[in-house]
Amino acid sequence: MSGTPDRDVAAVVDSVVDVIARSAPEIRAALPGRRVESGTDNPSGETVMAADVYADDLLADRLAAVERVGEFASEERESPADVGDGLAVAIDPLDGSSNLRSNNAMGTVVGVYDAPLPASGRDLVGAAYVLYGPITTMVVATEDGVREEVVEPADDGVDRTVVAESVTLPDDPTVYGFGGRVPDWPPAFEAYAREIESELKLRYGGAMVGDVNQVLTYGGVFAYPALEDAPNGKLRLQFEANPIAYIIEQAGGAASDGVQDVLDVPPEGVHQRVPLHVGSTSLIDRLEDALVST
Ligand code: AFP
After folding, report:
1. Cα 102 from chain centre
2. Cα–Cα distances in Å, from 263 out to 53, 67, 234, 278, 283?
3. pLDDT tens across 37-96, in order?
4. Does residue 100's CB lie within 6 angstroms of at least one atom of ligand 1?
5. ∠ CA 232-238-244, rounded to 5°
6. How high is the pLDDT of residue 2?
7. For residues 206 and 233, is the Cβ–Cβ distance under 8 A?
8. Which of ligand 1's atoms lies nearest the C-alpha of 98?
């Protein structure tokens, strides 16, 4: 798998992103009728909504059929599936599905790795997220940079319009959003949060993709930190943290688990969790200073 010629890698990433884009209008259209719990939990022990199942099944079938995709893994499935020879694809099919009942933002996250899963973030060759907001947008990161597209349904499937060719975080940070409950934040993170909240505007919607997109658009910091009772935080390295870290770093920002670059976190398990802090480099540097000084 590793050492795939660059031209092949780019073509496979394009094919994977095309599947995500073509599926987005169908996933969005399926949401209204799937706002109920499926009755099952995912491997992380979280409630699975009917919409999670729909998105996962749709994307699994289509991504497994992409030429030169050899491995597929999902936040909703116990272990990766061998689907042939080629790159590895890891997805969170519907991020923020708890927001479905309250009709708030949700997303789909995908990472393409040139290594067997679980893989290091350094093995990512592409990543993307779809944001189901007032409009459907898709942010795509490759070695060439980050672009934003508007994705709309069309008679023959989907209309994709690139609205920003080279997305970078603004120089001046504006917003922040921190997950978990304040009483569960370790003291060092709480002290950092108090500094940040005196400087920036709170934007927290409960879906990582929506909250990260605020940071990408306006500059700032998003974190789902280590908690007193969950030292590895909540977000999954393979499906959420690595792809988001790759996107933010390709856009000129930074991503940390509190101690090191997220992309350097050693992969130990497919569903391993990791504290995630991403955004403007200056704010991530301050976070690491705050956490390592304790
Ligand atoms: P769901 O997919 O279960 O809604 O979880 C979303 C998520 O994984 C991530 O998108 C959010 O940043 C985080 O959880 C929100 O967690 P809290 O509900 O604890 O704030």
Report:
1. 21
2. 28, 26, 17, 12, 18
3. 898 988 888 888 999 999 999 999 999 999 999 999 999 999 999 999 999 999 999 999
4. no
5. 90
6. 58
7. no
8. 4
pLDDT, the chain, mean: 96
Q: 251-288, pLDDT tens digit by residue?
A: 999 999 999 999 999 999 999 999 999 999 999 999 99
Domain count, the chain: 2
pTM: 0.97
Q: How far is the CA of 63 from the centre of ligand 1 (A)?
A: 24
In whole angstroms, how large is the CA radius of gyration of the chain? Answer: 18
pLDDT of residue 126: 98
Q: Same domain for 140 and 205?
A: no
* Tens-place pLDDT, residues 107-129: 999 999 999 999 999 999 999 99
For the Cβ of 76 lying below 6 angstroms from any atom of ligand 1, the answer is no
Residue 42 lies in a domain: yes
CATH code: domain of residue 73: 3.30.540.10
Q: Return the residue whose CA atom lies nearest to atom 1 of ligand 1.
A: 96
Do 132 and 259 share a domain, yes or no? Answer: no
Q: Would residue 276 count as lying in a domain? A: yes
**Under a CB-based contact definition with an 8 Å cutoff, are residues 121 and 262 in contact?**
yes
Rounded to the nearest angstrom, the distance between the alpha carbon of 19 and the centre of ligand 1 is 24
Domain co-membership, 184 together with 140: no
70 and 134 share a domain? yes
Q: Is 98 in the pocket of ligand 1 (CB under 6 A)?
A: yes
Whose alpha carbon is nearest atom 6 of ligand 1?
Answer: 96
Residue 208 Cα to ligand 1 midpoint, Å, equals 7
Residue range(s) defining the domain that contains residue 273: 175-292
